[in-house]
Amino acid sequence: MASILPQTRSAAVNPLKSSQPLGAAFAFLGVDGAIPLFHGSQGCTSFALVLLVRHFKEAVPLQTTAMDELATILGGADHLKEAILNLKSRTKPKLIGVCTTALVETRGEDFAGDIATIKREHAEELAGTEIMLASTPDFAGALEEGWAKAVTAMIEGITRPGERARQSKRIAVLPGWNLTVADIEHLREMVESFGLQPVILPDVSGSLQGTVPDRWIPTTFGGTSVEDIRDLGAAAHCIAIGQHMRCSAEALQRLTGVPYMLFHSLTGLNAADRLVSFLSVISGAAAPAKLRRHRGQLQDALLDGHFHFAGKKIAIAAEPDQLYQLASFFVDMGAEIAAAVTTAGTSKILEKIPAQAVQVGDLADLEALAAGTDLLVTHSHGRQAAERLGIPLMRVGFPVFDRLGSQHKLTIVYQGTRDLIFEVANVFQANQPAPRPETLNPFRNREMPDDLPSSPLARH
């Protein structure tokens, strides 16, 4: 069990984490016809918007209540009301996701009461639009917690409560933030191959996949529909991916009685087998032939790739669930986790990280711990540390803004694990020093002692 080392510095030198409100906005972006609304200053929203746009290379509909100095002192209820009513009248969204920031959270306002009042006093104007609140102060938690709070808020605020008639083929899927667009698309196809009907919340593969609509749309385009969220209680089972999604799955079970199965990771042969076995049991169908072929390809990749991983030292900095996903993958391949850094120390998954210790900190901590390792694994902000240390960098997580296609990389189940093996092995091969003649032949140019007896053959 890994020991969790608390943060030792009061300031971040090279920040690793993204904020809770950004994580909540990310989740709201996975709902069709939605607009995330930051309740705070324009600067908070602008910074988050820049990160999202640079990562996805897409137009992101992120809005703000634009709190000024006066509203910060006297209260922001009027700004919140004005923003909600303006968004409703101008863009006709199906969902407005309110993400609070440290500016208003520090003041201690009653956001839930303010929103309830706005909905009651303007019920006719706001008809047809769901307004969700995620309490996400910047000064606590990180992107992972913000994502989970937004998903939980949507389940508690939209899903019809109470036991309902189960649709045996309907499956609720709650993916973690670290699943890419490609991962979610692949997961949907995999569930459907068993004859099941997945409802994925949130579904960023629909809204952030790169589709170019034929007209300007001020809200998200694609994703989970509000109607599907409302009918989640009709699912026969729920699949939650990542420890941070346990609270959302528990909320769904508490409200509707839908049982859930939690998967800490879907990367690796054992994790993929566990998911396939579960889908086979709940569907009553055998694994499709295509999946069996993909499993065989992964087994072959494991054989081909493990030579390149054995004995390698890896340094990883990521959110807790992604840290577990990647660390488990590397250890299964025969590598060693020499440095593990994460954003917050509250997740129970950190105890399962296959490393001696997990440091809560930033990328400066990673740089200090990573000397002598063979690979750095983190997002694009780790590129300076990798350059200073002379260690190759594998870009994962959020944000990745200096490479194209990060959201279309597959990282889960059989094909995703196979692709990860090839990607990392190729990095190791590309950074392997070229052999020199003296290293190939240890007897070349060696010095001979003068007092050795001459060979008997030489005397004859």
UniProtKB/TrEMBL annotation:
<feature type="region of interest" description="Disordered">
    <location>
        <begin position="433"/>
        <end position="460"/>
    </location>
</feature>
<dbReference type="Pfam" id="PF00148">
    <property type="entry name" value="Oxidored_nitro"/>
</dbReference>
<feature type="domain" description="Nitrogenase/oxidoreductase component 1">
    <location>
        <begin position="19"/>
        <end position="428"/>
    </location>
</feature>
<dbReference type="InterPro" id="IPR000318">
    <property type="entry name" value="Nase_comp1_CS"/>
</dbReference>
<dbReference type="InterPro" id="IPR000510">
    <property type="entry name" value="Nase/OxRdtase_comp1"/>
</dbReference>
<comment type="pathway">
    <text>Cofactor biosynthesis; Fe-Mo cofactor biosynthesis.</text>
</comment>
<protein>
    <recommendedName>
        <fullName>Nitrogenase iron-molybdenum cofactor biosynthesis protein NifN</fullName>
    </recommendedName>
</protein>
<dbReference type="InterPro" id="IPR005975">
    <property type="entry name" value="Nase_Mo-Fe_CF"/>
</dbReference>
<comment type="similarity">
    <text>Belongs to the NifD/NifK/NifE/NifN family.</text>
</comment>
<keyword id="KW-0535">Nitrogen fixation</keyword>
<dbReference type="InterPro" id="IPR050152">
    <property type="entry name" value="ChlB/BchB/BchZ"/>
</dbReference>
<comment type="function">
    <text>This protein may play a role in the biosynthesis of the prosthetic group of nitrogenase (FeMo cofactor).</text>
</comment>
